[in-house]
Design goal:
heterodimer, A: 501 residues, mainly alpha, two-stranded antiparallel ribbon, globular, B: 496 residues
C-alpha cells in the first residue's frame, strides 16, 4: 500500500468517470456506483488508522513525485497526527452523505458526479503536503459545491451558491498571495510544507504577520469565524441535506485544519503573537454569538447552522491555548463536531422530506407520531449540548480546561455559553417534538431503514468517543504537542498584550 | 546576422505562404463557381503557416536581421508569430462554422483575414519605428474592413466606423510620438535608439517621456488598455463573432508583441539579475502601473452590468489585458515570461468562450445572456460545460490554464515586491467571478421555460470546442511545455 493516499483521494474520481458514462435512466446504478466509490475510501481510511504510528511526528504514508520541475512543484502527499483524524472523518462523512443523497430525483447523474468530485477535493486537502497541490484541491472543491447548492438547493439557492463562491474565493486568493510570498522567501523556492515549516526561523516578523493574516482570512472564511460567517447560514438553508452534512461535517474543518497546518506550522512566531486575538477572542465571539443567533432562529436548519458556528468556536479557542489539552481538545472537537452536526443535519432533512418546510413554530408533538425520530433527535441534541458520556463533552472539557490557564476570561464566557446551548436545544426540542401533535402531521411515517442506517454508525462513534476518546486522541497527541512546542519556542506576545487578556 | 533580401526569405516562409494564400484566394474567387471551397483553401494556408513556424530553422530563434534591418527574427518574434498563426487558424475555422459569415463574399473575407494575419506577423517582427507604424496601420485597416463586413447589419457598420475613428486618432498620436523619438535619438531603429538613449546619458528626460506617452496611445489602442479601450465593446459586439475572436486574441497579441519589443529591448536596459531598468528620470513604468490597475478594474466593473455576451466578453478582455500588463510593469524577465504564458492561456479560454457564444448564436440567433437560460437542461449540456470551463479559466480557478497563468503573473508581481498591485489584481479576480458566473448560473441553475428550441450537435464547431476545452484543462494540469516555450522566447535579438 505505497499508494494508499493517492488511492483514497482519487477513487471517487474513478467513480465519477464511471457515472458519467452511465446512461441517464439507470438511476439506481448511478447511486450504487457512488457507494462503491466511497466505501473503499472508508476501508483505506480504516487501514491507515490501524497502521498509523502514533509515536512519531514524522510524515507517514508519504508519496512524493516531481510534477512541474521547472518551478519545484511536487505531488507530495502524506499524513501525520494533524491530518489523520480528518482523513477518517472525511471518509466517514462522504459515505454517509452518499446514502443521504439517495432520494435525489433531479438529474442524479450530475449530482453524484459532482459529489464525488467534491469528495476528492476534500480528501486531497487533508493529505497534500505541497502547498500548491493543497491550494488546487482547496479550490477544486468550490466548483462542485457551487453547483450542488445552486442546482439542487432550495428556493434561494442561486443567491446562497454565489455568496458561498464569492466569499471563499475572496479568502483563497489571499491565501494564494501568501503562498507565493512563502514560495519566494526561501533561497531555493519551494512549496513543500515540511520544508517551509523547517525554514520558519528565517521569515522576518513583519512578513510573518502579513502572511499570517492573509492566510487566516482565507481559513477563517471556511471555519467560518465571526465576522466572515454570514455565508454559512444561507448556504446551509438552501443546500440539500447531504450537502449540508458535508458542509458542516468536513468543509468547515478545512479552515481550522489549514490554520494548524499552515499558520501554526509554517508561521509559528506570528501564531504565537496573534492567536490570542484571532483565534481566542474571535473563537469566543463565535461561541457566544453563534449560540445567541441560534436561539433567535425560526428555521430549524438555520438554527443548527448557527449552533454549528458556535461549536466551531471551541476549536478556535482550544487552538489558541497552546497547551496539550487545548490543542488536542480542539482537534478532537473538530472530529466530534463533524459527527454530531452531520447527525443534526440528517435529522433536519428527515423532517423536511416529510413536511417540506422547516418552520420550528409549525411543528409540535412529533414525538407521538415519530418516536424513533424523536429519540435520535434527543440523542443528537444531548450530544450537541455536551452531555457527559458523549463525545463532545470530552473535547469541550479539554478545550475549556486547556484555555483556562492562558485565557481565563474568555474561558468563562465560553463555558457560560453551555447554558445558552442547552437552552436553545431544549427549547427547540420542546417546540418540535413535545406538546400536542399538529393535526396536519398525523400521517407522517417514522424514519425508514436508510435514515436509521445513516444515524446509527454516527451515534455509535459519538458514544465510543464519549467513553474512550483515546481512540482518536492517541493519533493526535505526538504531532500536536510537537506543534505546540514549535510555537511556544518563539517569543511570546508583548507584556502589554498579555495583560489585556 | 544581417540578412539581405534573398537570404531573409528562408526565415520569412510562413509570411510568404500567407501572402500566397491571399493571392490564391483572390484568383480562385474569380475562377471557381462554388465559393464554399475558398474557406477550406484559407484554412489550409493558415494551418500551413502555423506548421512552417513550427519547422523554422533553429537559426531563426537565435536571431537575425531580415531585409536590411527592417525586420527581426528571434525567439520572441517566433512566439508571437505562432500565437498569431494560431489565432488565424481559429478564426478561419470559426468562420466556416458561423452562420453570420456564410452570406458574406467568401473570397474577399478570407483574403483580408489572411492579409490581416500577415500584417500582425510583421508587427511582431518589426525592427524599427517605421516598420512598427506601417504594420500596425496595416493591421488596423484590415480590421476596420473585417469589422464592417456584415454590410447589412447596422451595428457592424457603426462598429467599423467607431473603430476607424478611434484608430485614426490613436495611430496619429503614435506617429507624432515616434517623430519625437526620431528627433531625440536621430534613429528609427530599435537597437540604435537604445544605444542613443543609454550611451550618451544626455537624453532629455521630459521629451522622452512625452514621446513615450504619445506612442503608448497607439499601442494601448491595439491591446485595448484604458483609456484607449472605448472602441472595444462596440467593435466586439458589432463584428461577426469569428472576427471578434480574431481581434480579441490575435490583434491583442500583436499589440503586446510590439509593446514589449518597444518598451523593453528598445528603450530599457537589461541588468544581470534579469530585471529591466527604465531610462533614468523617465518614469514610464509608473504610468503603465496606473494604466494597468485602471484597465483591469474598469474592465471588470463595467462587465458586471452587461447583458450581452459579446459585450461582457469585450469588457472581460479589457480586464484580461490589464492582468497581462501586470507582467509588464514589474520590469523583469519573470514578468514578461508570465505575460507570454498568460497570453497563451488567454488565447485558449477567450477563443473558447467566443466559440460557444457563436454556437449558441447559430442555434438561437441571440447573443444575450438571457438566451443561455437553462441551456444545460435542453440538450446543450456539452457547450454549457465547455463555456463553464472557459469562464472558470478566465476567472482563474485551478485545474485550468487560466489559473496557472494568473499564478505566474502574481508570482512575478510578488517577487518584484509590488504588493499593492498584487492585492488589487487578486481582488479584481474575485470581482470578475461575479460576472463570469452570470452565464453559468443561467445555463445550469435556471430551468428552461420550455419554448426554446432544442440544441443540436454540429461536428465542425464542437470539434474545435473540444480541442480548446481539453487544452484549457490539460495544460492546467501539466503546463511544462508551455512555460518552457515562454522561457525560450525570452530572447530579444540586438545584433550581437
Amino acid at each position: 500500500m505505497n499508494h494508499a493516499l493517492t488511492l483514497i483521494t482519487f477513487i471517487p474520481i474513478a467513480g465519477m468517470v464511471l457515472i458519467l458514462f452511465c446512461p441517464d435512466a439507470m438511476k439506481n446504478l448511478i447511486k450504487w456506483i457512488a457507494v462503491a466509490a466511497t466505501v473503499p475510501q472508508l476501508a483505506i481510511a480504516w487501514w491507515l488508522y490501524e497502521n498509523f504510528d502514533t509515536t512519531t511526528t514524522a510524515i507517514q504514508f508519504a508519496e512524493k513525485h516531481p510534477w512541474i520541475e521547472h518551478y519545484n512543484i511536487t505531488y507530495f502527499m502524506g499524513v501525520d497526527g494533524i491530518s489523520i483524524a480528518m482523513v477518517l472523518l472525511t471518509a466517514l462523512i462522504c459515505v454517509v452523505s452518499v446514502f443521504a443523497s439517495f432520494n435525489i430525483e433531479k438529474a442524479p447523474k450530475g449530482y453524484f458526479a459532482l459529489l464525488l468530485l467534491l469528495d476528492t477535493g476534500m480528501m486531497g486537502v487533508f493529505v497534500s503536503l505541497d502547498f500548491f497541490l493543497f491550494y488546487i484541491f482547496w479550490e477544486v472543491m468550490l466548483l462542485p459545491m457551487y453547483f450542488l447548492i445552486g442546482i439542487w438547493g432550495g428556493p434561494r439557492r442561486e443567491y446562497a451558491a454565489i455568496k458561498f463562491f464569492l466569499y471563499t474565493l475572496f479568502g483563497s486568493v489571499l491565501m494564494l498571495l501568501a503562498m507565493i510570498g512563502l514560495y519566494y522567501y526561501s533561497s531555493t523556492p519551494t512549496f513543500d510544507m515540511t520544508v517551509l515549516a523547517r525554514n520558519a526561523g528565517n521569515y522576518t516578523m513583519n512578513f510573518q504577520l502579513y502572511a499570517w493574516i492573509a492566510l487566516f482570512i482565507g481559513f477563517a472564511i471556511k471555519i467560518p469565524a465571526f465576522p466572515f460567517h454570514t455565508w454559512l447560514p444561507d448556504a446551509h438553508v438552501e443546500a440539500p441535506t447531504a450537502i449540508s452534512v458535508i458542509l458542516a461535517g468536513v468543509l468547515l474543518k478545512m479552515g481550522t485544519y489549514g490554520i494548524l497546518r499552515v499558520n501554526f506550522a509554517i508561521l509559528p512566531a506570528a501564531s504565537h503573537q496573534l492567536s490570542w486575538i484571532f483565534l481566542g477572542v474571535l473563537g469566543t465571539v463565535n461561541i457566544v454569538y453563534g449560540a445567541m443567533c441560534a436561539m433567535a432562529q425560526t428555521d430549524y436548519k438555520k438554527l443548527i447552522a448557527y449552533s454549528s458556528i458556535s461549536h466551531m468556536g471551541y476549536v478556535m479557542l482550544g487552538m489558541a491555548a497552546f497547551d496539550s489539552q487545548g490543542i488536542n481538545g480542539a482537534v478532537l472537537q473538530m472530529f466530534n463536531h463533524g459527527t454530531i452536526t452531520a447527525m443534526l443535519f440528517i435529522l433536519v432533512g428527515v423532517i423536511y422530506d416529510r413536511a417540506h418546510h422547516r418552520e420550528i413554530a409549525g411543528f409540535g408533538g412529533l414525538a407521538q407520531q415519530m418516536p424513533i425520530y424523536a429519540g435520535f433527535t434527543a440523542f443528537a441534541f444531548f450530544a450537541g449540548l455536551g452531555l457527559p458520556a458523549m463525545s463532545a463533552f470530552i473535547s469541550e472539557v479539554l478545550v475549556l480546561s486547556g484555555s483556562w490557564q492562558p485565557h481565563p476570561i474568555l474561558t468563562i464566557f465560553a463555558a457560560g455559553t453551555a447554558i445558552l446551548t442547552a437552552g436553545y436545544l431544549l427549547w427547540t426540542y420542546q417546540r418540535i417534538y413535545l406538546g400536542p401533535l399538529n393535526e396536519k402531521y398525523k400521517n407522517f411515517t417514522d424514519m425508514n431503514f436508510r435514515e436509521i442506517g445513516m444515524l446509527v454508525p454516527l451515534a455509535i462513534i459519538v458514544l465510543i468517543l464519549g467513553v474512550y476518546p483515546q481512540a482518536i486522541l492517541s493519533l493526535l497527541g505526538t504531532s500536536l504537542d510537537h506543534l505546540n512546542q514549535i510555537v511556544l519556542s518563539t517569543p511570546a506576545a508583548a507584556a502589554a498584550i498579555a495583560m489585556v487578556r | 546576422m544581417d540578412l539581405g533580401n534573398l537570404a531573409s526569405i528562408a526565415f520569412f516562409l510562413p509570411e510568404l505562404l500567407l501572402v500566397f494564400g491571399v493571392l490564391a484566394l483572390i484568383v480562385l474567387d474569380l475562377m471557381l463557381p462554388r465559393k464554399g471551397v475558398l474557406a477550406d483553401v484559407a484554412l489550409i494556408f493558415a494551418a500551413g503557416s502555423l506548421l512552417l513556424i513550427a519547422l523554422e530553422p533553429a537559426q531563426a530563434a537565435t536571431g537575425a536581421w531580415m531585409f536590411h534591418r527592417m525586420l527581426i527574427s528571434d525567439a520572441f518574434a517566433i512566439f508571437f508569430r505562432a500565437l498569431i498563426a494560431l489565432a488565424v487558424v481559429i478564426a478561419v475555422w470559426m468562420s466556416i462554422g458561423s452562420l453570420e459569415v456564410e452570406h458574406c463574399d467568401q473570397g474577399e473575407y478570407y483574403a483580408i483575414l489572411l492579409a490581416s494575419a500577415f500584417a500582425m506577423f510583421l508587427m511582431a517582427e518589426s525592427a524599427n519605428l517605421l516598420m512598427a507604424y506601417l504594420s500596425l496601420e496595416f493591421v488596423s485597416l484590415t480590421s476596420y474592413i473585417l469589422t464592417g463586413f456584415l454590410r447589412h447589419n447596422r451595428r457592424s457598420q457603426e462598429a467599423a466606423l467607431k473603430y476607424l475613428i478611434y484608430g485614426g486618432v490613436a495611430s496619429g498620436t503614435m506617429i507624432y510620438g515616434m517623430s519625437w523619438i526620431f528627433g531625440i535619438t536621430g534613429s528609427m531603429d530599435f537597437v540604435a535608439i537604445n544605444k542613443a538613449l543609454f550611451a550618451g546619458g544626455q537624453a532629455p528626460a521630459l521629451a522622452v517621456y512625452i514621446a513615450l506617452v504619445l506612442i503608448l496611445a497607439g499601442m494601448g489602442y491595439k491591446v485595448a488598455s484604458v483609456p484607449f479601450h472605448m472602441w472595444a465593446p462596440d467593435v466586439y459586439t458589432g463584428a461577426p463573432i469569428p472576427i471578434t475572436t480574431f481581434l480579441a486574441i490575435g490583434s491583442k497579441a500583436a499589440g503586446f508583441s510590439l509593446l514589449v519589443r518597444f518598451f523593453f529591448p528598445a528603450i530599457s536596459h537589461l541588468t544581470a539579475s534579469g530585471n529591466w531598468e527604465a531610462l533614468q528620470g523617465v518614469d514610464w513604468p509608473q504610468l503603465l502601473l496606473v494604466v494597468c490597475i485602471i484597465t483591469m478594474t474598469l474592465g471588470n466593473l463595467a462587465a458586471l452590468q452587461q447583458t450581452n455576451m459579446k459585450r461582457l466578453l469585450a469588457y472581460s478582455s479589457i480586464a484580461q489585458a490589464g492582468y497581462a500588463l501586470m507582467g509588464f510593469v514589474v520590469l523583469s524577465n519573470d514578468g514578461i515570461r508570465a505575460m507570454l504564458f498568460y497570453l497563451f492561456a488567454y488565447y485558449l479560454m477567450d477563443a473558447g468562450a467566443f466559440l460557444v457564444v457563436m454556437i449558441v448564436a447559430n442555434e438561437t440567433g441571440s447573443e444575450d445572456v438571457e438566451a443561455y437560460k437553462g441551456l444545460a437542461w435542453r440538450g446543450g449540456l456539452v457547450p454549457a460545460i465547455a463555456l463553464a470551463i472557459f469562464l472558470f479559466s478566465l476567472t482563474g480557478i485551478p485545474l485550468t490554464i487560466g489559473f496557472i497563468g494568473k499564478f505566474y503573473l502574481f508570482a512575478a508581481v510578488i517577487r518584484g515586491q509590488f504588493y499593492i498591485l498584487a492585492l488589487i489584481g487578486i481582488m479584481n479576480s474575485v470581482v470578475s467571478l461575479y460576472y463570469y458566473l452570470k452565464p453559468i448560473r443561467k445555463m445550469f441553475l435556471e430551468q428552461p421555460v420550455g419554448d426554446e428550441p432544442a440544441f443540436e450537435m454540429e461536428a465542425w464547431n464542437y470539434s474545435l470546442m473540444g480541442v480548446l476545452a481539453t487544452a484549457t484543462i490539460g495544460l492546467g494540469l501539466y503546463w511544462t511545455p508551455i512555460i518552457a516555450f515562454a522561457n525560450r522566447s525570452l530572447h530579444f535579438f540586438s545584433g550581437a
